[in-house]
Amino acid sequence: DIVMTQSPDSLAVSLGERATINCKSSQSLLYTSNNKNYLAWYQQKSGHPPKLLIYWASTRESGVPDRFRGSGSGTDFTLTINSLQAEDVAVYYCQQYYSTPDTFGQGTRVEIK
Amino acid sequence: EVQLVESGGGLVQPGRSLRLSCAASGFTFDAYGMHWVRQAPGKGLEWVSGITSDSDYLDYADSVKGRFTISRDNAKNSLYLQMNSLRPEDTAFYYCAKGKTGTDAFDIWGQGTLVTVSS
């Protein structure tokens, strides 16, 4: 199974500042035939199901604010939240769908400093 | 409105069975792969099982293989998870999730149903 490791486990960021979450996979998620990285990011607010933010490592899901940006390729990926808002407090997960079983990172909790 | 609604969770003794259901609405159910993802209270996400749109291909996490069975009824816009030989470590919120076209990302999630396995 592909192991997904996120860092940090938690971070506190001031309102309006940038939050950066890293995700590393144990093997490359880049499928060379289509040049796509099989990685998604989710946001889960307390008491709610996860919400898809980003897929193909950098494509924002419809309706997701453009302050959320996904980047990276191969084994190293980043979710950046620019100008953090109060409503962004949540746990964020990366997920690989390159090979079965799909696997998730352990999650990163984002709080307001 | 696109919606997934799970049902069937509850308290069950170890070794017993439970069947979860997921009712879909607001989209063409038979066009999409569907999945079950679980989350133990206070823990992270674990993919459990997936099924293609036509039930041609089923897949399971090793942790549930041989005990859980995924199925769907496209005429009823419903997804199911038959869970047998339940263990305490199966205690979790179980979410059904819709596969996004062309990917295995999950773009629609239900609210979840809690399964508690305890004597």
SSE class of chain A? mainly beta
Structural class of chain B: mainly beta
What is the end-to-end distance of chain B? 39 Å
If you compute it from the alpha carbons, what radius of gyration of chain B comes out, rounded to the nearest whole angstrom? Answer: 13 Å
| Arithmetic mean pLDDT of chain A | 97
Rg calculated over all Cα atoms of chain A: 13 Å
N- to C-terminal separation of chain A? 36 Å
Order of secondary-structure elements of chain A = EEEEEEEEEEEEE
Characterize the largest beta sheet of chain A: strand count, sense, and whether it forms a barrel.
Answer: 7 strands, mixed
Write down the secondary-structure element order of chain B. Answer: EEEEEEEEEEE
General form of chain A: globular
- Relative helix content of chain A: under 10%
Number of helices of chain A: 0
Task: Please tell me about this protein's structure.
The complex is a heterodimer of chains A (113) and B (119). Chain A has 113 residues and is mainly β. Chain A has strands spanning 4-7, 10-13, 19-25, 30-31, 36-37, 39-44, 51-55, 59-60, 68-73, 76-81, 90-96, 103-104, 108-112. In chain A, the strands form 3 sheets. In chain A, strands 2, 6, 7, 8, 11, 12 and 13 form a 7-stranded mixed β-sheet that branches. Chain B is mainly beta. Helix content of chain B is 0%, strand content 51%. In chain B, strands 2, 4, 5, 6, 9, 10 and 11 form a 7-stranded mixed β-sheet that branches. In chain B, strands 1-3-8-7 form a 4-stranded antiparallel β-sheet, with no helix packed on it. The relative contact order of chain B is 0.31. The model of chain B has no long low-confidence stretch (mean pLDDT 97). The A-B interface holds A 38, 40, 42, 44, 48-52, 55-56, 61, 93, 95, 97, 100-107 and B 35, 37, 44-47, 50, 59, 61-62, 95, 100, 103-107, 109-112.
